[in-house]
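Figure 3 (text version): structure tokens given as input.
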């Protein structure tokens, strides 16, 4: 399929798609959120990252990966020599699924129906952007990408052949790296993540 790049078509279509997603009521998750957090990045990006869902800060800002996990992600990308501004970053689920405890909003992991309802948007993002490489960050993104439950440790480290010669990669979610309890192990896991990103960047 020829990729539309240097004319306005893809960008116009992307803006229309985002606009439509801002009013999404396809599933109940929109009810108790600030806004849809749609993907962002250039429409001709060759590398796409898929996260899980917006967190508290993303819900407020309306942008993906701007909270604590996002900061780690930004640092890791920089160390891996990847310019985030040239990548497309999105989430499997575009509304913040959470429960309220007092004033706090506690993250809830999206389940299969949430992922399936939101696949509507991810599918259209994939069709518009047509990335050559797609990186799923964590199990939810992996499930959204492959349509089945994934075991990260079994799949990470090697590309998965997708339709139209697209390379898929599955790796850990940055917030996993924030949660590793043992400090030495945390450093190891972070290093492994950066190495993986570097390796993926070299495939472009
Ligand atoms: N975690 C995600 O998976 N996505 C975000 O946008 C933020 C945190």
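Below: residues designed for each position.
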């Amino acid at each position: 399929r020829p990729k539309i790049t240097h004319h306005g078509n893809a960008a116009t279509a992307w803006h229309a798609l985002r606009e439509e997603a801002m009013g999404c009521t396809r599933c109940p998750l929109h009810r108790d959120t600030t806004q849809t957090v749609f993907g962002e990045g250039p429409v001709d990006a060759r590398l796409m990252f898929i996260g899980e869902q917006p967190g508290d800060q993303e819900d407020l800002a309306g942008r993906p990966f701007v909270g604590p996990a996002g900061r780690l992600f930004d640092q890791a990308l920089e160390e891996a020599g990847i310019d985030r501004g040239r990548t497309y970053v999105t989430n499997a689920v575009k509304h913040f699924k959470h429960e309220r405890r007092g004033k706090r909003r506690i993250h809830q992991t999206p389940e299969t129906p949430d992922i399936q309802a939101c696949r509507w948007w991810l599918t259209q993002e994939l069709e518009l952007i047509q990335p050559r490489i797609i990186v799923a960050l964590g199990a939810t993104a992996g499930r959204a990408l492959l349509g089945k439950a994934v075991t990260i440790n079994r799949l990470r480290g090697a590309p998965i052949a997708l339709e139209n010669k697209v390379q898929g990669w599955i790796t850990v979610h940055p917030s996993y790296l924030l949660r590793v309890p043992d400090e030495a192990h945390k450093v190891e896991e972070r290093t492994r993540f950066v190495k993986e990103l570097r390796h993926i960047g070299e495939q472009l």
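Strands lie at 47-51, 88-91, 98-101, 104-107, 133-137, 160-161, 167-171.
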